[in-house]
Amino acid sequence: MHQNEFPKVERAFLVGAEVRGTNSVISLQDSLSELALLAETAGMEVVGQTTQTLNSIVPATFIGSGKLEEVQAVIKELEADAVIFDDELSPRHQREISKVFGNDIKLLDRSALILDIFAQHAKTKEGSLQVELAQYEYRLPRLTRQWTHLARQAGGSAAGSGVGGVGLRGPGETQLEVDRREIGRKIDRIKRDLEGVRQHRSQHRQQRRKTGIPVIALVGYTNAGKSTLLNHLTNASVYAQDQLFATLDPTTRRTALPSGRQVLLTDTVGFIQKLPTTLIAAFRATLEETQEASMLLHMVDISHPNVVAHIDVVEDTLAEIDVPSMPRILVWNKIDRWAGDTPPQFPDSDMYREQVCISARTGEGVPELLEAIERVFAQELVRITLQIPFERGDLVSRLYRIGRVLTQESSAEGMILDVEIPKSAQDRYQDFAYENT
């Protein structure tokens, strides 16, 4: 391949705006820095950026008309191919801004950029379906007459859409309706497919509940190191890179705590500020894994200057998807990159049972994390005495996996065990409760 045959890297110019008097989780400049990382993750080269402070967002063009003309001149000078806004643009914003920049400049907002990254990184059928659904739901209200390729891709054409002879609508208008119907059909199909995935996952969770093995969900801001920790603890081979959204598809692996107790670790998609609502909805099937967990490990990058803001973003997103109250451990990761003495303080630290500093990459602090998990689980255990029939050795084995067997002895009717098991599993063994009379 000749050098000039390599695909051209798109040159992106970033635009950020903030409204006076509003409080943002992350400063405008830090948000633009994160947007630059997103653009680089998507394979773009960032060639410049600009910001504007407004009294209110301009209804037609998001930023002021003067600023828009300034951006137009700069992107021409820098030979930029794309302009990326740090906030989600409304359909009207996109339409009016595109008129100014022209069709040769790709116009994106943060939501569209994140969707593009997700599309690149989704590996499984489920992940691809979720991204496809989010993309279509994002595009549907933004359809314009320029989108006539959608229907052609679906096997339709303007000529075959019933225009000829009627004369009631223009061809572009009719084609727009065809595109909308086609996207609507695709959305319905993907939702049906995802419902099948959700039911399949639900069956898996029911099977896991029957085993009584507790599930620990790893949650955190994107690039906090969740996949690296999963790999370290379970010898898994989950893709883990120092970049945003390196992995999307959830992975569940079994591991043992120091006591020998078995647990399941589930890695989940990373969160980010201004995460598109269409994506949160599309990934609900995946995030249900978090809702069904026995414990959350909230991982954060202690070396990141906005780490406290990242904690807030994750907790807000967990609340948005209705994750129930459950024990949480705050895991300050990447201490090998950090020069501080004590972790930062933040207002809601009481919501965490334990806080542990680790390096998932080097393994430093991981034994202390496992001990903290044991302590938290111990707080969730109940002590009961059970009499298990001899022929139910499977129940005895399960008790050793999910809890702590303190004593075991034989009787005429079966094995008598003094055990500590999770409260959630107590009802399952109620029929075997033993009282020494």
UniProtKB/TrEMBL annotation:
Alphabetic keyword roster: Cytoplasm, GTP-binding, Magnesium, Metal-binding, Nucleotide-binding
Gly residues composition-biased segments: 157-170
Location in the cell: Cytoplasm
GO CC annotations on file: cytoplasm
UniProt-annotated binding residues for Mg(2+): S227, T247
InterPro entries, per the entry: G_HFLX_dom, GTP-bd, GTP-bd_M, GTPase_HflX, GTPase_HflX_N, GTPase_HflX_N_sf, HflX_C, P-loop_NTPase
Residue ranges constituting the Hflx-type G domain according to the UniProt record: 214-381
Residue ranges, annotated region (Disordered): 156-175
GO MF, one example: ribosome binding
SUPFAM superfamilies hit by this protein: P-loop containing nucleoside triphosphate hydrolases (SSF52540)
Known partners and oligomeric status: Monomer. Associates with the 50S ribosomal subunit.
Function: GTPase that associates with the 50S ribosomal subunit and may have a role during protein synthesis or ribosome biogenesis.
HAMAP family, per database record: GTPase_HflX
Family (UniProt): Belongs to the TRAFAC class OBG-HflX-like GTPase superfamily. HflX GTPase family.
Protein name stated in the entry: GTPase HflX
